[in-house]
Amino acid sequence: MGGRDVEKVFAALGDSTRLKLLRYVLHEEHSVSRCTEYVGLSQGAVSKQLTALARAGVLVRRRANRRTYYRVAEPEVLERMLADAESFLPRTPE
């Protein structure tokens, strides 16, 4: 993976709505309409975010008739990346 590819991935992950969508489709493929219901934004806004994630190579898109479905390209890799990123956060007292 080249430097520009890594930049695309990190840019795609740098948005709270995209992270929420990624966690939603992490282990199960969902349609755009299901994703729209989940995040509570317009279908156009959700489609734009999902497209950005797909262009970065984080999501895989599948079309079936008039519906578009998304899933994480490599769930194990994304889980590891998210866990590693969270390990950088300061620990809060419980």
Q: Concise description?
A:
With 94 residues, the protein is of the alpha+beta class.
Describe this structure in words.
The protein has a 3-stranded antiparallel sheet. By secondary structure, the chain is α+β, with helices and mostly antiparallel strands. It is built from 5 helices and 3 strands. It has helices spanning 3-13, 16-25, 32-39, 43-55, 75-87; strands at residues 30-31, 59-64, 67-72. The protein is globular and about 45 Å long. Helix 3 (32-39) packs across helix 4 (43-55). A hairpin with a 2-residue loop joins strand 2 and strand 3.
The biggest beta sheet reads: 3 strands, antiparallel
Helix content: 55-70%
**Total number of strands:** 3
Q: Total number of helical segments? A: 5
Strand % is 5-15%
* Uncertain residue ranges: none
SS-derived structural category: alpha+beta
How large is the radius of gyration?
Answer: 14 Å
What spatial form do the alpha-carbon principal axes imply?
globular
Note the run of SSEs as H and E: HHEHHEEH
Q: Average pLDDT value?
A: 88
Task: Give the helix/strand layout.
Layout: H1 3-13, H2 16-25, E1 30-31, H3 32-39, H4 43-55, E2 59-64, E3 67-72, H5 75-87
Antiparallel strand pairs: 1-3, 2-3
Helix pairs in contact: 2-4, 3-4
